[in-house]
Structure formats: structure tokens, C-alpha cells
Design goal:
The protein has about 450 residues and is mainly α. The protein is built from 14 helices and no strands.
């Protein structure tokens, strides 16, 4: 018989405790999106290394870790959606969650923010609309989730003393969205071939192979023959519309996503243990400080996020339960911060600049959710009176997927990425969760 001081090894399994709406996913997603803004404040406002860079000896930083966290959560939720939804409906839900918010963000950036900044710099709008890389070109180049134009009418390139030179992009946070879409395609392939329902061990094999490649990389054994990770132009471009994919980034973000997918597929075997939760936090801190973050710390981080989503106290579960502002905060945060620097607010110091960044990003995210994202998700069942789902329905009922929380940006030189300065900027797209929180594990369908 257990005494009051005894520690319970497990409170149950993920299948038993991670169904329904009673979790802290909304809080975690919003926290990750906010962490990206906090991390970017140092480099965008003051040209300093992001938080965590020195502590981890350059392995990662707060912004990049947030992106990995988004991909872990996305792996769980998107895999659940792929397992239960027909292919067409799955792709429709993912497109609704990602594209409308992105398109409006691009339009606001091109037709509201940058004209104002251009006018402030030049004193007039002469040349803005006719520029070879003007607002229409920005929309045409970036609409397909792969940003291929960083600037609008030279607003960033000619910023001069305003300080925008810390990043050559007006919204570098969009870089991770194409990697997230690549993961969506992977889930679609696995669902179509029946792997998610009938051959889930294939996902464990994928996780294992990725893990071995990461170990080789940690031992300075190149996993990509002939690839020099200092040369972004050696990356892969499947189609022009997809933009370029860095094999290193595909490996690390794909590994984070695959860890989440494995957790979802083996949810009845994964224990929810306070002992493992605390241990995973210690392993994460140890790997950040002493090395091998991607080998040991990233799997520990995946379990830690899952444990927090289930075990955080009730007040945290109410945050983001009905309204998911994480995606909007992610895709608009960089634009807000660049704008604040352009008008000179960074001169007031770090803390005022950070406060304005967070308030500004959250304000725009609230508008994006209520005016764009949530109304768009109401179209999720368009053309179908009843959605037919594949696979078994868990105790919490059916669910759609949550968008991970990707991030984006076309330039590799700006801010955070898996390998620090010179690699893709951290963003957070929270490609967040789906629209209305219904049955599944805190996802929005």
C-alpha cells in the first residue's frame, strides 16, 4: 500500500491521459511562440547572440529550441489527424490551418507595413510600387509557403542606421513553414500506404535511422556525401515553388517531428511518469551545457513537452483552450520586431523593446486568429456533411491535427537555425493547432 510520500512511477499511459481537451497544449504553444520573440529581440534589436547560445556552447538557442518543440507537438497532432482523416480531408485541413493566415500576413507586410517604413525612410512613396521587388512581387514569390523574396522595395536593404541589417529579411520567421509542409507530406504518404494504421513500426525505423545519422553528425562524420553545411547553395530544390531544403535542417526538424509521430502511434505504451518528466528535464539541461543536445537532449525535450502538456496544473490548461494565438504570434512576431527597430524604439533599451515586441506580436496574433484563422477553419468540413475517419477513435474522441508550429524565412543568414548564426532563423511557427478545439488531444481541427 502506497504511503503519502511514495513516488508513483506512472500515472497511466499517454492513451489514457492525453485524450480530450484537458491538457496544456495551448499554453505550451503560446509559450514557444513567445520564446521565439524573446530570442529574436536580442539579435534584431541589438545584434547580440540569442538567449541560450553561450550556455549551450553554440549548439542551439531559445528560438531554435522553440522550433524543435513546435515540430514535436506537430508530429503528435498531425499524425493523429493523418491516422483518422481521409487523405483529401487531411490535406484540406492542413491547408486551411496554414495558408489563409500566411497569405494575410504577407499582404499586411507588403501593403501596410513596408509602405509605411518606406515612407518613413524616403519621405514619400516614389518608387515603392514600381520597384522590381515590390509588394506584388513579394506576394507572388512567397505565397506558396516557401519564401523566395526577403525584402519589399528595398525597405530592409536600404534601412541604413535603423538597424535592420541584423537580418536581411522583413519576416525571416517564415523559413520553417516549408519544412513543416514537408512533414505533412510525409504523414500523407504514410497514411495513404497504411503505415500509420497497420505498420507503425516503420515510423520507429525512421526515428532510428534519423537518430543514427544525428549520432554520426555529432561525431563529425558527414551524413550527406559531398554536402558542406556551410554552403546553403548545396541544398536541395525539388521544385522552384518549394524553395531550397537544407539536408541538415530536414534531418533535425524531421527527427523532432518523427519523435512526436512515434509518441502518438505508440501512445498506449508510453507512460506518463513524473520520474521520467524530471529526468528528461535534467537530461535536456545537461545536454545543452555539456554537449550532444541533438543526440540526447532533443528526445528528452520531446518527452518533457508531452509530460508538461499532461501534468501541468489546471490553470495552465485554460490558456489557449479556446483561442490559439501561437501561429499568428509566430508569423507576425518578426515583422513587428523589425518595424520597431526601423522606427527607432530599440534605442530605449532591451526590456522596453522586448515588452513592445511581445505586446505588438500578441495584438496582431489576436486579430489574425479572430479575423482570419478561426473563420477559415470553419470551412474544414466544406463539401462533406460528415467526415469519415480512418483508424480507431481514442477515449477522447476524434480529432484533427494541430499545426506545429513551424516557422519560416527564406534567408539562411539571418537569425536562428539548427547550427547558429548563418543558418535559418528561428521562428516558431507555431503552425499551431487547428481551429476549434474539439475532441482530440488539444488539437484544433
Amino acid at each position: 500500500m502506497s504511503g503519502p510520500g511514495d513516488v508513483r512511477w506512472s500515472h497511466g499511459t499517454v492513451a489514457e491521459l492525453f485524450s480530450g481537451r484537458n491538457n496544456s497544449l495551448g499554453f505550451l504553444r503560446l509559450s514557444l511562440a513567445s520564446a521565439v520573440v524573446v530570442s529574436h529581440a536580442r539579435i534584431l534589436g541589438f545584434g547580440e547572440k540569442e538567449f541560450g547560445h553561450h550556455f549551450s556552447h553554440g549548439q542551439t538557442d531559445l528560438g531554435k529550441m522553440s522550433v524543435y518543440g513546435f515540430f514535436v507537438l506537430s508530429g503528435i497532432l498531425v499524425t493523429r489527424s493523418g491516422k483518422r482523416l481521409p487523405l483529401g480531408r487531411f490535406l484540406w485541413h492542413r491547408a486551411l490551418r496554414l495558408l489563409p493566415g500566411l497569405w494575410v500576413c504577407l499582404a499586411v507586410t507588403a501593403f501596410v507595413v513596408t509602405p509605411f517604413l518606406y515612407w518613413r525612410q524616403q519621405g514619400a512613396l516614389d518608387g515603392f510600387w514600381s520597384h522590381s521587388e515590390g509588394p506584388w512581387s513579394y506576394m507572388a514569390s512567397n505565397w506558396a509557403v516557401a519564401p523566395r523574396q526577403n525584402d519589399v522595395s528595398g525597405v530592409v536593404a536600404t534601412a541604413g542606421e535603423s538597424g535592420l541589417a541584423h537580418s536581411p529579411s522583413i519576416d525571416a520567421a517564415l523559413w520553417s513553414l516549408r519544412y513543416e509542409v514537408l512533414c505533412y507530406i510525409g504523414v500523407a504518404v504514410l497514411a495513404t500506404t497504411g503505415v500509420l494504421v497497420r505498420a507503425r513500426r516503420v515510423v520507429l525505423v525512421v526515428v532510428g535511422v534519423m537518430g543514427l545519422l544525428i549520432v554520426r553528425d555529432a561525431m563529425d562524420v558527414p551524413f550527406w556525401s559531398g554536402f558542406d553545411d556551410s554552403d546553403y547553395h548545396a541544398s536541395i530544390e525539388f521544385f522552384q515553388v518549394t524553395g531550397r531544403f537544407d539536408p541538415d535542417v530536414v534531418l533535425y526538424l524531421g527527427f523532432a517531428f518523427a519523435l512526436g509521430a512515434a509518441i502518438e502511434l505508440y501512445r498506449e505504451r508510453v507512460p506518463v511518469s513524473d520520474v521520467l518528466g524530471v529526468a528528461s528535464g535534467l537530461v535536456l539541461l545537461g545536454s545543452l551545457r555539456f554537449g550532444y543536445f541533438f543526440v540526447a537532449g532533443l528526445p528528452a525535450f520531446a518527452y518533457l513537452l508531452l509530460w508538461l502538456a499532461i501534468r501541468l496544473p489546471a490553470p495552465f490548461r485554460r490558456i489557449g483552450a479556446r483561442h490559439d494565438y501561437s501561429y499568428g504570434m509566430y508569423i507576425y512576431g518578426f515583422v513587428v520586431q523589425q518595424s520597431l527597430v526601423a522606427v527607432g524604439f530599440a534605442r530605449w533599451g532591451f526590456w522596453p523593446y522586448l515588452a513592445m515586441s511581445l505586446v505588438g506580436a500578441l495584438t496582431v496574433a489576436v486579430l489574425s486568429w479572430h479575423l482570419v484563422e478561426r473563420p477559415s477553419m470553419r470551412l474544414k468540413d466544406l463539401g462533406s456533411a460528415r467526415t469519415v475517419r480512418r483508424g480507431e477513435v481514442g477515449a477522447g474522441g476524434t480529432a484533427g491535427a494541430g499545426h506545429a508550429e513551424g516557422a519560416g524565412g527564406a534567408d539562411r543568414s539571418a537569425v536562428s537555425g539548427p547550427h547558429g548564426v548563418g543558418s535559418p532563423p528561428a521562428g516558431l511557427a507555431p503552425g499551431g493547432a487547428d481551429a476549434a478545439r474539439v475532441e482530440g488531444a488539444g488539437e484544433r481541427v
